[in-house]
Write a structure and sequence with these properties.
The protein is an alpha/beta fold. The chain is built from 4 helices and 5 strands.
Length: 110
């Protein structure tokens, strides 16, 4: 699993599995944000499964699903709130990591 560091508080990556969570925690992440809607991919674990497994090992997990290529102002606001609510560093994931990185970019548009 490869994490792309976006800032000191955020990294992004493609879809994770419950088996990735111990590696995520060992890498120092304190929380995760899922930006991928449930059911988007055939082999994608549900957020509920990820959240339960994360909680069991002491990782916080928040669900901020965003449709590909359709991030709204509400999505960006929800992503900002999730970043504020979680202790950093945070790992955000989606299908490829691009949606999560785009949300961060939209937070910093001027």
């Amino acid at each position: 699993m490869v994490f792309q560091r976006i800032s000191s508080k955020l990294s992004v990556c493609p879809q994770i599995a419950t088996s990735d969570l111990p590696k995520i925690k060992a890498a120092g992440f304190k929380g995760i944000i899922c930006n991928r809607p449930d059911g988007e991919g055939a082999n994608q674990p549900s957020f509920a499964k990820i959240e339960k497994a994360a909680y069991e090992i002491g990782l916080a997990a928040l669900y901020v699903p965003v449709q590909p290529g359709a991030a709204s102002k509400k999505d960006v606001t929800s992503f900002r709130k999730a970043l504020e609510d979680l202790e950093s560093p945070v790992l955000a994931y989606c299908g490829s990591g691009m949606r999560s990185a785009s949300l961060w970019s939209l937070l910093h548009e001027r």
